[in-house]
Structures are given as structure tokens and as C-alpha cells.
Amino acid sequence: MKGVSLQGYNSKYVTMLVKGELKAGDLVAMGGNNTVEKAVNKRFVGVAHAIRDGYALVQTGGFAVLGYSGNAPAVGFAKMQADANADAVLNEGGGEVLVTEVDTVNKSVGILF
Length: 113
Prior knowledge:
Layout: E1 12-18, E2 27-32, E3 35-38, E4 46-52, E5 55-61, E6 63-67, E7 76-82, E8 88-90, E9 95-103, E10 108-112
Parallel strand pairs: 1-3
Antiparallel strand pairs: 1-5, 2-3, 2-4, 4-5, 6-10, 7-8, 7-9, 9-10
């Protein structure tokens, strides 16, 4: 939506160690002490923004645009987790997020978490 920006709202970032293969944009889950791994079929704790020298900058709160699979979420509160490809998917076992925008053509969803 032109003129509307949620970027920067309540943004939170941490630096953690990386376990396994991880790239910027992947949803991540805890993989050990102060360590994240690609979230696969589980609740995610954040989004990897940069990976370097075995460390990841992880967004743990604020506004993010994610790819989704399965049914398109509706605007409003939804429970989402990562699927087998680390895309967001509706799931009652997931964490609650506020869906602010849905793009069904590009299969992306804007969330506040």
C-alpha cells in the first residue's frame, strides 16, 4: 500500500551461532545454546537477515515479509510456523502473529511478531 510503512516497528535483532545450512530470508528455530538453524516443520523464532563467519543476524520481532505456502492467511491474528521448505504456513501449533498484508500473487505475507 503506497504511503504505508511498518518497517522498523518494534524491530528486534540478535546475533547467534549457525547450525547447518542457512541463508538470508530463512525462517529460523533454536538449534542449541545461542544457536539457530533453518526452521523445518516447527515454530520459528525469527528470520535470518545476514550470515557471515558462522554467525547469523536474526530478526526476532517487528515487521517482516515472509513467503508462505498452503492456504493464504487472512489479515488479523493467525498462528503460523515453518513448513518443510522453511516457508510460513498456517498451523495451530505455530506462534501467533499479526498478519498485516497478504499478496496471493507472490505468495507473501507481512507480519508483526
